Amino acid sequence: MPDPFAPPLDRAAFADRRDRFLRRLGGAAAVIPAAPLVTHHADVEHPFRQTSDFWYLTGFDEPGAVALFLPHQPDNPFVLFVAPKQASAEVWNGFRWGCEGAVAEFGAAVAHPIEELAQRLPGYLDGAEGIAFRVGRHPAVEPLVLKAWAAQLDRAPRSGRAALGLVAPCPLLHELRLRKSPAELERLREAARISAEAHELARQVARPGLNERQVQAVIEHHFLEQGARGPAYGSIVAGGDNACVLHYTANNATLRDGDLLLIDAGCSLADYYNGDITRTFPVNGRFSGEQRALYTLVLAAQEAAVSAVRPGATAEGVHDTAVRVLVEGLVELGLLQGSIDGIIEQGAYRHLYMHRTGHWLGLDVHDVGAYRLGEHPVQLETGMVLTVEPGLYLSDRLPVPEGQPAIAPRWKGIGIRIEDDVAVSEHGHEVLTAAALKSVAAMEQPLAG
Ligand code: GLY
Ligand code: MN
Ligand code: MN
């Protein structure tokens, strides 16, 4: 059934995406599988999460389906294989659209029960000049595609035709997904709104003695209460030194007076658009001198990097902007030494800043789309959306590069990241997550109640 928290299915928008994908396929037929249900433990499954490629082209939110895109069959260019209506299954697992719904609601020219895929796939692929299928990702469907193609090749001497190659659908499809439509931007604004509100709520409740998980609960409660599916990725709620573990998700330590709290959390909407925000603030409402110096530096780097987002710039350029500000500041603070250019060239800052400054954002949190095409970094265009998330992490986990100063104890256990979601706009950019405050003053606002 449609999710009441998702906007009504915009059939024309999905049809337009399919048309554009079909045109790009040329004479190749594409086989795009939906996600299967994934086992959590024993016979219990994880909540269903559709694959983003399948969702982008169909809006169909059931597991185990397969979509065919058939430019060589203009009367039948979009075919769905789906779980058929079946009362005995629906009483356990809920409503299915079935073949009739796949045609009536989702615009398939024809729909078949998924059980008929093996038998019908060779016929649908017959006459295609190539087969667009992502190998290595869909173990249930891949053997059927390869078998159908092998049979074509076996018959080719007599039939006179066979698909000439297996091609990757990803570059064609992901180029489309990389450029967000106005409607998609609106959904990303909504994900950003809910995510930003959750961060503001978290800052109001955080205090010494609370457990990280109790802060996580406040954040994820807000996601669900606002109609999101839940967190877009494992929420990171990391007090003190835990923040120096980039993918910390244990979230089970007690918050300590004098520590910072880093929260990296964002929601995933009913139609899968995501927010991805990081904020860092003092647990007791007051930065120490070292924390303030480093926070101010990360904020300067983040604001400079956000300012670098505009049409014609590159994600690499945004990263380079952040790195330069960080390195200059770290030299001033005595945490690095040497020439700025030399440090950057040698990567002699990477024990303190070891990740990239951002990634594309959309239906996937680390969204699809190339950052480079051969030698050339991809230029930012209106409608692209990326995160900007520099940080600094002062711990003993990585060795200090030769020639660089040891980290004095007073700096250790400080992990800071500031992350916003930024859309490239005609004349520059729009910070989708601006409602999540980040100034030093805001991070020190008095504890509530
Ligand atoms: N939370 C994942 C990321 O920031 O990339
Ligand atoms: Mn993040
Ligand atoms: Mn991110």
Features:
six-stranded mixed β-sheet; 449 residues; binds glycine; 2 domains; Creatine Amidinohydrolase, Chain A, domain 1; 35% helix; 20 strands
Describe the structure.
This protein is an alpha+beta fold and 449 residues long. The chain folds into two domains: 11-176, Creatine Amidinohydrolase, Chain A, domain 1, CATH 3.40.350; 179-443, Creatinase/methionine aminopeptidase superfamily (Creatine Amidinohydrolase), CATH 3.90.230.10. Helices cover 35% and strands 17% of the residues. It has a six-stranded mixed beta sheet, with helices on both faces. Strands 10-11-13 form a three-stranded antiparallel beta sheet, with helices on one face. Strands 16-19-20 form a three-stranded antiparallel beta sheet. The model has no long low-confidence stretch (mean pLDDT 97).
In short:
With 449 residues, this protein is an alpha+beta fold. The chain has 13 helices and 20 strands.
What CATH architecture of the largest domain do you see?
Answer: Alpha-Beta Complex
> How is the main sheet built?
6 strands, mixed
Strand content is 15-25%
The SS-based structural class is alpha+beta
List the helices and strands and how they pair.
Elements: H1 11-25, E1 28-33, E2 39-41, E3 44-45, H2 52-58, E4 66-69, E5 78-82, H3 87-93, H4 98-104, E6 110-113, H5 117-125, E7 130-132, H6 142-159, E8 166-167, H7 170-178, H8 182-205, H9 212-225, E9 230-231, E10 236-239, E11 260-265, E12 267-268, E13 277-282, H10 289-307, H11 315-332, H12 340-346, E14 372-373, E15 376-377, E16 385-388, E17 391-394, E18 414-417, E19 420-425, E20 428-431, H13 440-443
Parallel strand pairs: 1-7, 5-6, 7-8
Antiparallel strand pairs: 1-4, 2-3, 4-5, 9-12, 10-11, 11-13, 14-15, 16-19, 17-18, 19-20
Helix pairs in contact: 5-6, 8-9, 10-11, 11-12
The chain binds glycine and manganese (II) ion (2 copies).
